[in-house]
């Protein structure tokens, strides 16, 4: 028994170094596999992406948390009414649109937040978008080729016009000049809107606008619509004044209002200048 115990002890002592060697080899193999399989663009906790998110968090805490909550969970005012909706899950595209068009931060609450010059720089907008995108998945900022219309064909512009008249004219007018909506809201004019913001608006559905996801409008359909609107932006007005581009109706209305109004004014002026014939009391009418 004593001889068997000493043999077992020698076996255990030999296994101890062997286990250490196996463990070291396994660690080296795992490290090598991680270095090979992890993408080159992956960043650590202190990488540029994390720094951008942290910068966005600081900007959000200063400029956005008073309405949207410190963690973008939504906020209320002193009366318990909703001051700002939750931004969790809206994605980077929504932030880039709202802040890039100057609608956010809002100057004051109202039925609709109007467009104004942006408050933040492009780098700050990207940081805010990165922070909100880190909270939950949502639509990302589209790539430039998604809304690049520099090489579109005439057929694509025509198809974009058909899609625009089908999906957009009820609010934005067939010429993209905007229009009134119920409860003090309105569809803004698209004559100053950039292709990037048009694509993001269709992707995210800001304010009362519906969301036109890729399941509703394919990316190439969105690009065709943008091409049509850009063509409207670049179109000339042969008459000199666009008049909402409503055609002969508005032009005829202004023709009657101004033209007939001037004729009436001239008639009144002529009548005032013509001397009246005075008759004696005893003079007959013939």
Main attributes?
mainly alpha, two-stranded antiparallel ribbon, 286 residues
- Major β-sheet strand ordering: 1-2
- Major sheet characteristics: 2 strands, antiparallel
Shape: elongated
Q: Regarding CATH, which class of the domain at 144-234?
A: Mainly Alpha
- Uncertain stretches: 36-44
Summarize the structure in words:
- The chain has 286 residues and is mostly helical.
- Among the domains are: 48-135, Cytochrome c-like domain (Cytochrome Bc1 Complex, Chain D, domain 2, Orthogonal Bundle), CATH 1.10.760; 144-234, Cytochrome c-like domain (Cytochrome Bc1 Complex, Chain D, domain 2, Orthogonal Bundle), CATH 1.10.760.
- It is 52% helix and 3% strand.
- The protein has helices spanning 2-37, 48-63, 65-68, 91-100, 122-135, 154-167, 169-172, 195-204, 219-234, 248-273, and strands at 75-76, 82-84, 179-180, 186-187.
- Strand 1 and strand 2 form a beta hairpin.
- It starts with a helix and ends in a 13-residue tail after the last helix.
- Mean pLDDT is 81; it is low at 36-44.
- GO terms for molecular function: heme binding; iron ion binding; quinol-cytochrome-c reductase activity.
- The cytochrome bc1 complex is composed of a cytochrome b (QcrB), the Rieske iron-sulfur protein (QcrA) and a diheme cytochrome c (QcrC) subunit.
- It is found in: Cell membrane.
- It is a multi-pass membrane protein.
């Amino acid at each position: 028994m004593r001889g068997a115990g000493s043999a077992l002890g020698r076996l255990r002592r030999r296994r101890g170094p062997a286990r250490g060697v196996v463990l070291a080899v396994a660690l080296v193999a795992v490290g090598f596999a991680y270095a090979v399989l992890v993408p080159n663009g992956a960043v650590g906790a202190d990488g540029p992406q994390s720094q951008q998110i942290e910068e966005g968090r600081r900007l959000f805490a200063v400029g956005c948390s008073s309405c949207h909550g410190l963690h973008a969970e939504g906020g209320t005012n002193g009366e318990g009414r909703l001051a700002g909706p939750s931004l969790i899950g809206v994605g980077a595209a929504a932030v880039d649109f709202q802040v890039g068009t100057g609608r956010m931060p809002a100057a004051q609450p109202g039925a609709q937040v109007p467009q104004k010059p942006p408050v933040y720089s492009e780098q700050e907008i990207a940081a805010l978008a990165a922070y909100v995108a880190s909270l939950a998945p949502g639509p990302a900022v589209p790539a430039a080729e998604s809304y690049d219309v520099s090489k579109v064909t005439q057929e694509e512009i025509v198809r974009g016009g058909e899609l625009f008249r089908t999906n957009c004219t009820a609010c934005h007018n067939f010429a993209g000049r905007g229009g009134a909506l119920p409860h003090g809201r309105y569809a803004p004019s698209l004559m100053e809107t950039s292709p990037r913001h048009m694509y993001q608006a269709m992707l995210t559905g800001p304010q009362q606008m519906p969301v036109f996801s890729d399941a509703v409008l394919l990316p190439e359909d969105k690009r065709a619509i943008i091409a049509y609107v850009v063509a409207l932006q670049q179109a000339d007005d042969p008459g000199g004044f666009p008049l909402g581009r409503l055609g002969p109706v508005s032009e005829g209305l202004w023709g009657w209002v101004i033209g007939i109004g001037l004729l009436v004014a001239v008639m009144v002026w002529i009548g005032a200048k013509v001397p009246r014939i005075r008759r004696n009391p005893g003079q007959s009418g013939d």
